[in-house]
Design goal:
The chain is α/β, with parallel strands linked by helices and about 425 residues long. It has 13 helices and ten strands. It has an eight-stranded parallel beta barrel with strand order 1-2-3-4-5-6-7-8. Helix 6 packs parallel to helix 7 (about 190-195), helix 10 (about 285-300) runs parallel beside helix 11 (about 330-340) and helix 12 (about 360-380) runs parallel beside helix 13 (about 415-425).
Length: about 425
């Protein structure tokens, strides 16, 4: 193309969002356009106009996908999707063998735009650098209160309506739910009702232990992203032999599953979560986390951690809330992460709590759980987004495992003393 006159490049960037999303959460989509403007300006300086033109089609499609993401304002939006789409397309699309042509307006082809950007990101993710803690999505009026849904893979509309109302009355802003692998549809009504009530859904992709996720991960993530799900937990308690089918826990085995799945979640605009580590695992949770972070770096996949979060299980038992091995275990995790990365990763509680037993009275339970939620409301640990009690209901919500009966806050005969206290303190 040397010798040819190349016209100036004009790319329409996504508009700066104004106002709040329909769900009531403040829009932070302005960061999308700022990041994209900065990124494109940098690449204009680094490359000549011809090289830039070669990638213009992918960039146009990526920006269209980003624009769509900004317009989806059911919940607060992170910068993940737009920045990732645009830079991935920019960096991974090869130069064509024929004269490059600017792609025409793609507003009538949103699916193709997203697919182009997603394919580029999936093949070679490119990061703008670590997403700041404050840019990860949070629910409006966040108080750090979380609750795990019924331990089932789907719920009836009647159960959803009743228990979402109970969760809202208890002041919950985060709800963790189980999704049957890459299934689409079973949790639609639940996600819809949660987001309508200003509650942030956190989706754990349930598998039979550490077995590979099958099916269309990207399609599932896109589906639930459109409905307001940002956080997707991949696998669970990989340091526990009950989750490894009896095999000794192995960091490399876990990463062989987690890394490709995390890339696919990122490709579809989601935020992949590291499966929570059990404090009672056959392999020490702190040792597992330390080795895992080191191996991610050694495999050349550290960029994945720029938009990743850590799932946390911080049960207390009879330990006081000040015990660093109980409720405050997340501080040990943060120290490990800081040493490895030089920064914090966001943490989202997906299980936890203080449960009744011979060592703990109902009065003590109420005091400890309220104390844990009070700690979260103060925001003393800005990287720790939520503390999540296991579970909201069991039999009263369709759960069938009697092992969980005594953990439930809402039972067939009504709310427990703890549930009542949470409602009164909300």
């Amino acid at each position: 193309m040397s010798g040819q006159s190349i016209p100036p490049i004009s790319i329409q960037l996504p508009p700066e969002p104004v106002g709040a999303p329909s769900g009531g959460a403040p829009a932070n989509g302005g960061g999308f356009a700022q990041d994209l403007r900065s990124a494109l300006s940098t690449y204009r300086r680094k490359e000549d106009q011809t090289a830039f033109l070669r990638r213009s089609g992918a960039i146009t499609s990526a920006l269209m996908a980003a624009d769509m993401a900004i317009e989806d304002r059911r919940l607060e939006i992170s910068r993940n999707a737009a920045a990732g789409y645009a830079l991935s397309a920019l960096a991974t699309v090869p130069a064509p063998t024929t004269k490059p042509v600017l792609v025409a307006n793609t507003t009538d082809q949103p699916a193709a735009a997203i697919e182009t950007a997603s394919m580029a990101m999936n093949s070679n993710p490119v990061s703008l650098g670590p997403l700041a803690l404050q840019d990860f999505p949070r629910p409006a009026g966040d108080n750090g209160r979380g609750i795990h849904w019924v331990p089932t893979l789907k719920s009836t509309p009647e159960v959803v309506d009743r228990l979402v109302a109970e969760a809202k009355d208890m002041g919950m802003k985060w709800v963790v739910l189980l999704n049957d692998g890459t299934n689409v549809g079973d949790n639609d009504y639940l996600v819809q009702r949660l987001t309508e009530n200003g509650i942030m859904p956190v989706m754990r992709l349930f598998t039979d232990g550490l077995t590979p996720l099958s099916g269309d991960i990207e399609g599932m993530v896109r589906h639930y992203r459109q409905m307001g799900v940002e956080y997707f937990q991949l696998y669970n308690e990989p340091n526990l032999m009950v989750e490894t089918h009896g095999r000794p826990p192995n960091v490399s085995d876990y990463l062989d599953l987690w890394i490709p799945a995390a890339k696919r979640v990122l490709a579809a605009g989601g935020l992949p979560g590291i499966g929570a580590l059990s404090p009672q695992g056959e392999m020490d949770d702190r040792q597992f986390l330390t080795q895992m972070l080191a191996e991610v770096e050694a495999r050349g996949e550290a960029d994945l951690l720029d938009r990743t979060w850590l799932s946390v299980h911080n049960y207390t038992g009879a330990r006081p809330l000040s015990d660093p091995d109980g409720f405050l275990r997340f501080r040990q995790y943060d120290a490990i992460i800081q040493r490895a990365l030089g920064r914090s990763l966001p943490m989202v509680g997906t299980e936890g709590g203080t449960h009744l037993g011979s060592h703990l009275s109902e009065e003590q339970q109420v005091k400890m759980v309220l104390g844990a939620y009070d700690h979260m409301a103060k925001g003393s640990d800005p990287y720790n987004f939520s503390y999540t009690y296991w579970i909201i209901a069991n039999e009263a919500g369709g759960g069938r495992d009697p092992e969980f009966s005594q953990h439930a806050l809402i039972r067939e005969d009504g709310p427990t003393a703890l549930a009542t206290a949470l409602m009164q303190s909300a």
